[in-house]
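User: Sequence for Zinc finger DksA/TraR C4-type domain-containing protein below. Tokens please.
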Amino acid sequence: MLREISCPDCHWHRLVATGEKLRLLHQVGMLRREENPDSAIIEELFERNGSKLVCGECGRVGLRIDYPRDDEEDWGDGRVCEQCRKTIPAERLEIFPDTKICVACQQKDDDGEDDTMPDYCPKCGEIMTSGTSRGGGLTRYRIRCPRCG
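Assistant: Structure tokens for Zinc finger DksA/TraR C4-type domain-containing protein:
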């Protein structure tokens, strides 16, 4: 289940899934001995330990944990960008009613800038790395966990 973590001081925010939650719990000293914990345990510990989590921008200890906003907002409210979570201006929505991202994120996509979050290992929460396979012929790329293999 996705959650949004945010800093009350600098307004940094990020969406996290189960693998990232597990990694954050390991950082604050939870579940160190448990190799493959149940997802319900991860969710419960994550909810209870928001006060121990550290902001990725300013380093403040104690983050707010919320459910991500729904894609369907009430009439009259602005739509939120799927990438940066900022409100999309009404003028843009009038011109492009089906748009899901703001002008700044659209510009990054058009310029080829990749501002996506990394993939995390579902077992240990480590950031996945890409590499090439060994052998002759075509070069094949694969994503793997440096810890689990």
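The first strand starts at residue 3 and ends at 6.
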